[in-house]
Design a protein that fits this description.
The chain is α/β, with parallel strands linked by helices and 394 residues long. It has 15 helices and eight strands. It folds into two domains: 111 residues, no CATH class; 233 residues. Helix 2 packs antiparallel against helix 3 and helix 5 packs across helix 14.
Amino acid sequence: MRTLAPWTEQFQHFVTDVREQFWGDLTQHTRQSWADFLERLSVEARDQYLGVREYERSPTRADARNGFYERDFVTRLGTLRVRVARTRQRAFLPAGLGRLQRRAGEVLLLIREAFLRGLSTRAVGRVVALVTEESVSAQTVSRLTRDLDQAVAQFHAAPLGDDWQYVFLDGVSLRVRRPSGRQRVQLLVAYGVRRDGTRQLLAFTRSQGESQAAWEGLLQDLYRRGLEGRHLGLIVTDGCPGLAAALQTVYPRVTHQRCWVHKLRNVLTVVRRRDHAAVKADAQAIYRADSRREAAALARQFARRWQEAYPSVVTRFLRDLPDLLAFFQCPRRLWRRLRTTNLIERCFVEVRRRTRPMVCFVNVQSVERIIFSIFHRFNLEWRQRTRRAFTQAA
């Protein structure tokens, strides 16, 4: 059988040019048709207002035609140059085109959705330009997304209910531009999981640090919105002293689990490098035990082995041990997920990825919008996806 010869490079360029010309002409004709249609709507509105059509006379009319003015209107087909009919006293915008409106509703929706999907303001402008062929500045994107402020307020006030089984609490640091210079702003976050495996980022708040007062503010907000803690089985934290104190004030009856990752990190910072591997292995053996009793026995071995070399480390370790072993009271399937704050830390990875291109926020309102957009996207995705391990353990 004879095989067909491959296309030559010239023929491939020819086919590409034909396709581009065809779609380019079609797009141009479509744009022109829409521009003509909008112009006719404007002329019809003017004629109806005057009561006479062009070249007709009426002794009773109080106004006269005054030609047209041109105005650009950005749509998903690109930018349309629309001729707007006017009289000496007023102009007649086509139906569906509002005063001072330069972009169609679907373009505004595209800008907002691209922003909510995690693109930076500059990236949103570039994406919109691919569709509309009009570049949108980062400042314009920021201005158009200010209507998110109402959605942010609704998020902060939404009722939570009291059916949450596990809550994870942690903080992440962001930079904000202030008149006195760049400053760090701490973001305190609450993440909840129900017994059926459904999960949600419950709340976030800005603060200057992780003091007891700052954490009490977030916890009181959770309580006020309905999370009273009657069904809470465990609250997992990074071990911040201010947070631990705040929990005793707002949720004193809920068991507190301290994150093993943070605890090991703190221990290894004061241990000599040559002992890192041995200390880490002994500590990991504790939380990998098959029962709380075995873990307690391994903790005593840890204390005996390292008491002489690191007395202060052992003292603090034994002091925190009840909070480190709290996860053993939960179903075995969940031990690995409840002994650390990894679930909420994974969300912070996305927060850092999303905010890294911005270098520094212009103001605290922009922080609220960005964080809300990230958390809102997570919550929408999680509505159809449950944590299988929590569901099986229920």
